[in-house]
Amino acid sequence: MDENFWNTMGGKYPVNSFWAERFLIDPLDPSSGPGRDDVPSTVYQSPVAPKAEGPEKGVFFSVKGLEGAWIPYGRGHAACPSRHLAKRLILYTTGLLLAAFDIEIVTQQVVMDSPRFGLGVQRPKQPVKFRMKRKTSSSAH
Fold it and tell me: Beta strands of 1-141 (E only): which ranges?
C-alpha cells in the first residue's frame, strides 16, 4: 500500500483502488507497469519485453522486480509451496473465462477494503456488479 513504490499513473489509480492493468507492461509506454519509474533500480526494475514473435511481443504480464514488495503467497519459511501452481491455475482459469465470455463490469467505481491486507487478502467493500455473456463459437477463437 506504499504510494511511494507503486505506479499510480500520476494519481489516476491510487494503490487502494482496483486497477486491472497494474501488472501489465507495454513496451511502447514507459509509464506502464506496477512500479514507479523514480523508485531506485535496486528495488524495482521494469522488465524488458520478452523476445517473441506474434501476439506475445506486445503488452505482457510481469511481477519481475517486485520480490519483497508484493507478497501474495507469503514469504520465507511460510511461503506457500504451491504458489507457482496456484498462479498458473489462476491465469489459466482467467484465460478460459475471457476466451468463452464477454464480461462487462457495471459498478462504476470499485473501492477496496484493506483490513486484512497484511495477510495478502484484499476485497471490494461493496458487491461488484457485472454482466457475462457467452461468446458465440466463431468469436471465441
Answer: 24-25, 60-61, 101-105, 112-113, 123-124, 130-134
Beta bridge partners of 3: none
Q: Render pLDDT for 57-71 as a digit per residue (tens, 0 to 9).
A: 688 887 776 766 666
Give the distance between the most distant pair of CA atoms in the chain. 48
> How would you classify the pairing of strands 24-25 and 130-134?
unpaired
What's the sign of the alpha-carbon dihedral 123, 69, 22, 58? negative
CB atoms within 10 A of CB 40: 7
pTM listed for this prediction: 0.46
- Local structure of 110: helix, strand or coil: coil
> Is the sign of the CA dihedral 45, 9, 124, 106 positive or negative?
negative
- Domain tally for the chain? 2
Q: How far apart are CA 59 and CA 46, in angstroms?
A: 13
Q: Within this chain, do residues 82 and 140 fall inside the same structural domain, yes or no? A: yes
